[in-house]
Design brief:
By secondary structure, the chain is of the alpha+beta class. The protein contains 5 helices and 11 strands; from the N terminus they run αβαββααββββββββα. Strand 2 and strand 3 form a beta hairpin.
């Protein structure tokens, strides 16, 4: 692996902005492996007790398309090894200043016609019930662009605490109308950001999928809350295959 340890300059930039873009965090050979594992997950049938698949309606033709897979570490040994003890955990440990512990894992697919997501801080989804701070490693499996909905960050707002309301997207008033910065990535790039850093992305208007791996950690001193987090999430937002059709599972943030 390359770039497994961040420099003092990179750590300073992260502390200043609340996020850090690291080009070529993985080599193309490594990202090809990650892409293969992603295909394995996406092509596997939906099964209760396996990884969690979520779907949305395409803006192009209203068909049902895959938008996200979560909680796949327990069922995919290669991803599990990558996320625990690999370069992402090492880099996030550098940013915490202590060992990082895996909190959650997901892949956002953003297929052609797939939606973006509204501006938010990750802490707005109640993550502070598990640890005071989380850091996410975003890995671009595919290149991200303005056309397919790159991640957009708001620098220097991560140290302001909770600036919006829980379970509601951020408004321009919340962010004082400050401009977001698009972070366009090549395949293999990484973006690290903390749970108070405002971010958003636009829809995918291209004819190709934009797959991105998100791996979130908390500091070891805050404990290991992965199992409890997914137990709690299952009660309110289970994977599509386990949903009660009479209930409303509207996505909030």
């Amino acid at each position: 692996m390359i770039n497994t340890t961040l420099s003092s300059e990179q750590i300073s930039a992260f502390n200043r902005d609340g996020f850090l873009h690291v080009p070529a965090f993985f080599t193309q050979r490594q990202i090809t492996e990650i892409s293969t594992w992603t295909d394995e997950l996406s092509l596997a049938p939906e099964m209760i007790g396996k990884d969690w698949k979520y779907f949305e309606e395409s803006a192009l033709d209203r068909t049902r398309i895959l938008c996200r897979i979560e909680n796949f570490a327990p069922v995919h040994q290669h991803f599990d090894a990558l996320m625990r003890g690999g370069p992402m955990q090492t880099a996030v440990s550098d940013l915490f200043g202590e060992e990082a512990v895996l909190f959650k894992d997901k892949i956002n697919f953003k297929m052609p016609g797939g939606n973006g997501f509204s501006a938010h801080q990750d802490v707005q989804a109640g993550w502070d019930a598990y640890a005071p701070l989380h850091i996410t490693a975003m890995i671009s499996i595919d290149a991200t662009t303005a056309e397919n909905g790159s991640l957009e960050m708001l620098p220097g707002q991560h140290d302001k605490g909770l600036i919006g309301k829980k379970w509601e997207p951020l408004t321009e008033v919340d962010t004082k109308h400050a401009p977001y910065v698009p972070v366009h990535c090549n395949s293999g790039d990484a973006v690290f950001f903390d749970s108070y850093a405002p971010h958003k992305s636009g829809p995918n208007s291209t004819d190709s999928a934009r797959r991105v791996l998100y791996v979130t950690y908390n500091a070891n001193s805050s404990g290991d809350h992965r199992v409890r987090y997914y137990e709690d999430k299952h009660k309110s937002y289970p994977p599509d295959i386990e949903r009660d059709q009479a209930k409303d599972y509207s996505y909030k943030v």
